[in-house]
Amino acid sequence: MPTSGSASSGQGQGQGQGQDQGQNPIPSLTTKYSGVPARLQQEAVDAKARLYSQKTVPDSVPRKKKALPPGVSEAGFDRAIAELKDALGHENVEVNGTDRPLVDGWYMEHPNTHDAYHIAEQEELVCSAVVYPGNTREVQTIVGWANKHQVPIYPISMGRNIGYGGAAPRVPGSVVVDLGRRMNRIVNIDGDNASCVVEPGVSYFALYEEIQRRGLPLWIDCPDLGGGSVLGNAIDRGVGYTPYGDHFANHCGMELVLPSGEVLRTGMGAMPGPQPEPQPEPQPQNSSGATDSQARDGAADVPNPTWQSFQAAYGPYIDGIFSQSNYGIVTQMGFWLMPATGHQSYMITFAREDDLARIVDIIRPLAQKRILGNIPQLRHVIQELAVTGKPRSFWQYQKPMPRDVIRARASTLFPPGGGDVSWVFYGTQYGDTAASIAGQLATVRAAFAQIPDSRFLLPTDVAADHYLHSRVAVCSGQPGLRELDWLNWVPNAAHLFFSPIVPTAGGGGRTTASAIHNLVAQLHAQHGFDLFPTMCVAAREMHYIANIVYDRADRDAKRRAIALMRDLIRHAAARGFGEYRTHLLFADQVAQSYSWNGGALRRFNESIKDALDPNSILAPGRNGIWGRRFRGQGWEILDGDGRDLLIDGVVPKL
Ligand code: ADP
Fold it and tell me: Mean pLDDT of all residues in the chain?
């Protein structure tokens, strides 16, 4: 069962280090916590076959150099690792030595040793070892060890943070703390409260399958791909597409190990649960079944019954500082689940590129009035082509695909007589009755019908393999794999996300949806990339997500992608657009762009970092937050520093 986190379950064996994965069977969810559910097994086989048919890079690449933590000698590292093995068991510590080739794998068989979608050299962001804790107490042991030996540690839950750095640590030679392999229990699902508590290694697939198995009328909320961890995605502030799509906003309660080694529960979890009535005879400790890590201070640990009911508790609301930061290792997290309801997905196509401003202006009041119940997506028609899984090679040229080529190709994807398409809006309406949904649909249709030549289509109007059907699933909380298909656009495809926050405002001026779109389009053209924009449009802001797809075997493409990212961040910042999330290697530049009042936010973050983590052991550099030990030593990759990541690398020159 994927709900078992026991060390003896054998789950998670063969994480991908040093193996040729081309021929391996894809791990299933019943044999591995990060595996694929049976219902998607064939889809995974097909997706992998398509990706591998486009692959020219070798499955496995020999290592050139040994990765060591900064400032630690080889002998010192060996001694420290021996100590860690003694503490956690030899089988739970893997040294990532030069005998371990680098294996990028693919989404379902991803590495925990480096960034599979490398944008710098493949071996640049590599860890020195991976450690697999089995419970909160072992996480505390690892933190104590890291402080003693001054070794940076980098926690991951699943390590599928693709497009943002995957499983890679920002500081090469860090020890990756892979929580998912042994800490993958669904601790609790409360059908009445509509909530759950999960450990780091619970994927969307696993949570969904368990809810189905129990027959509970609850939805999860998942991002476009379902293999990530529920917990990891939320603390990186990922989003999904049901009305519970803001993952961090719908969490309730965390358990963390702080860099000091202390365990903290946030929210109502900070208050102990009800204690047993006094007994005439002393009860044996742990008789309630509490695990070792739960029993603290000599009392049986019954979690507070309102831990998953109220987020803030009493005093400052601190959960936020543990998202997109390096202040703690999250070992458990609570989430609200949505009661299942009726739903109807649809798409609306728009004929002209410059319809964008009007579309956004129509979405805004619909979203503010909550007539749009979720975060709908507005996609450029080029995505319709890419998500068919067919390569861009029908267009023979290096330079970006012109609008008329995209339009001609895409026209086959819509029902005949549909006319031209430039933008596609994917929405879903929710309600307990058909009448309620029909009423909402009528309002939405009427609003968008103001745009000439727009077309409203239901799933029954399009072909069985049209992407709209996968939106139906994702927008009702059913995790899938379909979104992998656009990775076939170029061979050996990898991608980076450029994801600024933009006002939900369509009109003219420098700070509107059209302005950022024009800017992004112009920079993509300049650096020779096709532009894949998806807008996740909320009532007052949109996540404008441009997906930069590049061939990871092509150094020139990598160099152009890096230059494009750096230009995008700089030019967007000049107009007040800042990223909500970014790849590890661009974190410093993004953090730098939040510069109001001389960088007051950065100084505040650093003060917290230094107070909580005086030895700077936890994920140094993540989200551009460097502890005292690293700050100002040349680690930061800043705007205008002239650094060529493919030549100079990411480690400061002495
Ligand atoms: P995914 O769910 O996409 O596989 P990851 O496990 O890669 O996500 O997590 C996303 C990022 O969040 C990681 O790169 C890491 O920096 C951070 N992170 C993940 N899990 C934890 C955790 N349990 N505690 C602290 N930080 C974490």
Answer: 90
